[in-house]
Amino acid sequence: PHPLKKMGRMMGSLGAAAVVVLCGFLGGAVARSMDGVDQIHIPAAPPTAIVCDSEPTAACITLWPNGAPNETAGQFPPERRTPDDGQGCGPLQSIPCDHVLSVSNPTITPFIVTNGTGASVVIAPGGGYHDLSWGKEGLDVARMYNSIGVSAFVLKYRVPARPDVPGLPHWWAPLQDAQRAIGIVRSKATEWGLNASMVGFTGFSAGGHLTAHISTAWETRYYARVDASDDASCKPDFSVFMYPWFILPNNKPAPWGANYSLSEDFAGKVGADHPVSLFIQNQDDGTAPPQGSLLYNAELLAVKATTPTIHLYNKGGHGFGLCQTMDSWLEVCDWPKVAQRFLQDHGFAKGWPSTKPAPKQMLTQNCNSLD
């Protein structure tokens, strides 16, 4: 049998804890095991590629084979990883959550499945453009998307923030990496069994800022062409904003009654051709004001972009990820089901209910108990 299916049966014998959970995020209604989820390997990587956190095991994909653009050699210390982002990450939510710091060689980490529509998503973890919340907002999120049949690529973009460069946007390095990542995924889609017209982008906190950046700055590549991957569009087909940071000028809401505006990174750049979007945030977010999501959403409506979806929850603060490090369940912990329904509604994921559900199904959201 396929080694992944064999592993799925082994994990199933350990009980419901040893599974990749989707509806478990929604109150324990159902858990979907790895058994039966068809996954494929990325084609053989060059000898210089490194083996990374991909599932199944494959080589990380280096974005810039000849080195990232506009970089100064030796400007930052070597990349490092630290297990200091809370406890509760991994397939069993049982290991420390890692930070990744000092990235100068950006990559994408593949999590490819073949049991969906062919949709894929590039995931940008947060970290204030200082570091990356790699486990909590990267690897675990990739597993969540895999559980609903969406392939994922975790973007290890350059941090910390680079000094400004004349002619380039502020926070130009992550934007270059995001543009290059989408181009690679889209250009390799057929080879990897994906749909080139279903490549989305999602980001958390600073990654949410990057989601806005790539969603409004896709018409111009901010680097010189490297290869054929840069001939493919870098526009996301959908964008999922997770508690996006620095959407407002100086990351602060205007006083009540004053005029609001988006950050200069996006002001006047949100157009009718903006990717279809989902916003997830808490009202008590003290790091990224929820007014930013509200204003961005209002701007999309004003320019007559595809109608966005927005979910604001009452509490949970900032940086909740998949609620891995929380001690208790909060309403916001249901967000993966919201994301699944959003993707189903727009044709990026399978499973949209074909008939009106009964009241009981509305409560369980069509999940079936394992009991």
Which residue ranges are poorly predicted, with pLDDT under 50 across at least 5 consecutive positions? 1-51
Strand numbers in spatial order across the main sheet: 1-6-9-7-10-11-12-13
Topology, number of strands: 13
Strand content: 5-15%
Structural class: alpha/beta
Question: Count of helical segments?
Answer: 7
Mean pLDDT: 87
Gyration radius from CA atoms, angstroms: 20 Å
Q: Give, in order, the helices and strands.
A: HEEEEEEEEHEHEHEEHEHH
Q: Termini separation (Å)?
A: 27 Å
> What spatial form do the alpha-carbon principal axes imply?
globular
What is the share of helical residues?
10-25%
Q: Which sheet architecture does the biggest sheet show?
A: 8 strands, mixed
What does the model show?
With 371 residues, this protein is of the alpha/beta class. It has helices at residues 3-12, 135-147, 172-187, 206-216, 290-302, 335-345, 359-364, and strands spanning 61-62, 80-82, 87-89, 95-96, 99-101, 107-111, 120-124, 131-132, 151-156, 199-204, 238-242, 276-282, 309-313. An 8-stranded mixed sheet has the order 1-6-9-7-10-11-12-13, with helices on both faces. Strands 2-5-8 form a 3-stranded antiparallel sheet. Helix 5 links the parallel strand 12 (276-282) and strand 13 (309-313).
Task: Provide a concise account of the structure shown.
The chain has 371 residues and is an alpha/beta fold. It is built from 7 helices and 13 strands.
